[in-house]
Amino acid sequence: MRSTTGARRAVRLPRTVYIVICVFPAVMAALFYALRPAAGFMGWFSVSVAAPVRGALGFISTVYPLSLMEILCTAAAVWIIYYIVRTVMVTVRKRDKTKILLKRLLTIVVAALYIWSAYCWLWGSGYFAAGFAVRNGFLSSGVSTAELTAVTKLFAEKANEFAPQMKRDADGRYVGDRSEFFATSTDIYDHMFNEFPSLRGRLYRPKPMLFSWIMSRTGYTGIYFALTGESNINTRAPIFLMPATVAHELAHQRGVFAEDEANFVGIAASVTSGDPVYEYAGWLMGLMYLLPALSGADREAWIGVAVSLSDEVNRDWQDNHDYWQSQKTYDTGVEFLDKFLTATTETVSEAVDTVYDSYLKSQNQELGLKSYGACVDLLVQYFSIDN
């Protein structure tokens, strides 16, 4: 209803409400850090509260075919830039500059705290609960060189077996269709549910990333975003490994938090899926972890496996190496620009690695980024038993 003067009154919330709005996310974040050591509580919360919420968010995000995470992150970046510019303009015009500046900075801090506390409870809680390996009885005593050699040979044999079945061009390069394995992605875990009941549940189709080039430049192939429940895939990365990357990100959907465990689960799901495209990607990705480990344990055994790889496997391995090397440099034809872009990319990539490494370590993942290679023990234990 309009006032008799035609003006509108601004609705002002009580000061107490403002204080609660500002303090609440800080309290929730502090509570998370205080309760992190309580593994039992974190396990209950992660399974009974966080997982259903992430599932609901994943269901909602399926309404939009592209990455909702990218849209939200882009919108947030644009808003932050606008807000900073607006803050400068408003602060310059007003008399009480310090008060205005502090109020506007507080808005950003409170918004960031809401996002961080939500992320901690929805995703970080799982890092402080019993992990997939513990829940499923995997040992942590290490593996023998003989076992490592046997499993590496198995992966090499299987990669050699499936490599010729993949679609290739006249030069022998892999030319698979991404849309095919994206369409079948939500079925690849069906056979895993009986063996690993904790993985049981609905999966949501992964999203291709519009900003895949940024992921490639920083060295990442995919990301699971708990605040939207989405698995996001870098579609510029080598396609022959992409199905295993999809399986890895889907493992995160099903509550596998640690990177080494998600690597293992993704590879195991791929190679036992019954889908040749996924199987080849899983055997090849597993081999890319196992061979370097074997090289450090038994050089002669490593040479024996390495020389047994087929031309197709070697071609894909080399193409993968060449692609990631190409993402570290630029070739615009202008020397000074190439040097500047290369140096900038290297700096950004190192910064992203450092931030993510620090994040993993702060979330009870002591190996940090090295945990991506720690799936070797799980692979050897699992495939030594099964094969």
Characterization of this structure:
It is a single chain. By secondary structure, the chain is mostly helical. It is 64% helix and 3% strand. It is globular, with a radius of gyration of 24 Å. A hairpin with a 4-residue loop joins strand 2 (222-225) and strand 3.
Head-to-tail CA distance between termini: 76 Å
Q: Based on CA inertia axes, which overall geometry fits?
A: globular
Using the CA coordinates, give the radius of gyration: 24 Å
Element order: H for helix, E for strand: HHHHHHHEHEEHHHHHHH
| Uncertain stretches | 1-7, 368-372
Q: Report the structural category.
A: mainly alpha
Helix percentage range: 55-70%
The count of domains is: 2
Question: Which strand order spans the largest sheet, edge to edge or round the barrel?
Answer: 1-3-2
Question: What's the total count of β strands?
Answer: 3
Q: Which sheet architecture does the biggest sheet show? A: 3 strands, mixed
Strand content: under 5%
- Helix run count: 15
Give the averaged pLDDT, no decimals. 86
Give descriptors for this structure.
64% helix; 3 strands; three-stranded mixed beta sheet; 387 residues
List the helices and strands and how they pair.
Blueprint: H1 15-35, H2 39-61, H3 68-93, H4 97-127, H5 132-135, H6 145-162, H7 178-183, E1 207-208, H8 212-218, E2 222-225, E3 230-233, H9 242-253, H10 259-271, H11 276-297, H12 299-306, H13 311-326, H14 335-362, H15 376-386
Parallel strand pairs: 1-3
Antiparallel strand pairs: 2-3
Helix pairs in contact: 1-4, 2-4, 3-4, 6-11, 6-12, 6-15, 9-10, 9-11, 10-11, 11-12
